[in-house]
Design brief:
10 helices; Rossmann fold; binds adenosine monophosphate; six-stranded parallel β-sheet; single chain; alpha/beta; 2 domains
Length: about 280
């Protein structure tokens, strides 16, 4: 496994790789969710590149960029076991030199949900992914369903800007009690960790009511809200039932629907989703 922090090195190491080349972009502090992406990339490609970069431009000024968990040595050990070919782990100065001044703005699908709660977040995500795609030139790039709006945005960018790669969606990996795996789960103390299952409970309730025939989105949202409000440590940021492609909010659930939510458990903001 080769490891580099430099863009020029990464481009040079990319040249001799045998196609197809799978890319897994991450912010590190790897867990089984990330490793599911790496394993899928390993299955579908001859060469696998993983990037580890805590991208400053996708964090708001009052967000957790500085305290975001980092453990590069542990990450490298895990990636070696998965037979990764190259790990690209640049510094912020390498990716954003002082004169950097170009941004990828995706339109309407960034206006709601994470885009509304975290101004600039999806612009930062789209910009860093465009840079990684240009540097690494992957055949396919792998993203988790856990960040559903991010996936919609990246797919839209690739289609609209005619980028020459395929985006692959990997299902969300969960803890045994249903909590979606996330690097941010490490912020939770034991009491908050127990409270955090309320996200998955609310999503499961929506799935159950929908499978019993409920198609009124307002009723589904209300039942989810009522359930989460019973958990004293939980504060709802949003609950959405939207068209899974356009992310337009639905009144009736009669197309494939993305049920997504963002909830604060004390100070930790968690997101999760299911598709109906
Ligand atoms: P992150 O390091 O949080 O930026 O995540 C890197 C990639 O891993 C993104 O495509 C995420 O959607 C994906 N990912 C994070 N958590 C999970 C999970 N629990 N299951 C599947 N994919 C995940």
């Amino acid at each position: 496994m080769k490891v580099t922090e430099k863009i020029d090195d990464m481009k040079r190491l990319r040249q001799p790789l045998t196609e197809p080349v799978g890319l897994v972009p991450t912010m590190g502090y790897l867990h089984e969710g990330h490793l599911a992406l790496v394993r899928r990339a390993r299955e579908e490609n001859i060469s696998v590149v993983v990037s580890i970069f805590v991208n400053p431009t996708q964090f708001g000024p009052r967000e957790d960029f500085n305290r975001y968990p980092r453990d590069p040595q542990r990450d490298l050990t895990l990636l070696e076991k998965e037979r990764t070919d190259i790990v690209f782990m640049p510094s912020p100065a390498e990716m954003y030199p002082a004169q950097f001044n170009s941004w990828v703005e995706i339109g309407k699908v960034t206006e709601r949900l994470e885009g509304a709660s975290r101004p600039g977040h999806l612009r930062g995500v789209a910009t860093i992914c465009a840079k990684l795609f240009n540097i690494i030139q992957p055949t396919k790039a792998y993203f988790g369903q856990k960040d559903a709006q991010q996936l919609v945005v990246i797919k839209k960018m690739v289609a609209d800007l005619n980028m020459n790669l395929e985006i692959v969606t990997v299902p969300t990996v969960r803890e045994p009690d249903g909590l979606a795996m996330s690097s941010r789960n490490t912020y939770l103390n034991p009491e908050q960790r127990r409270a955090a299952i309320v996200l998955y409970q609310a999503l499961s309730l929506a799935q159950k009511l929908w499978s019993q025939g409920e198609r009124d989105a307002a009723k589904l949202r209300q039942q989810m809200t009522d359930l989460i409000c019973k958990q004293p440590l939980a504060n709802i940021d949003y609950i959405s039932i939207a068209n899974a492609e356009t992310l337009d909010e639905l009144d009736r659930v009669n197309t494939p629907a993305l049920v997504s939510l963002a909830v604060r458990i004390s100070n930790t903001r968690l997101i999760d989703n299911v598709v109906l």
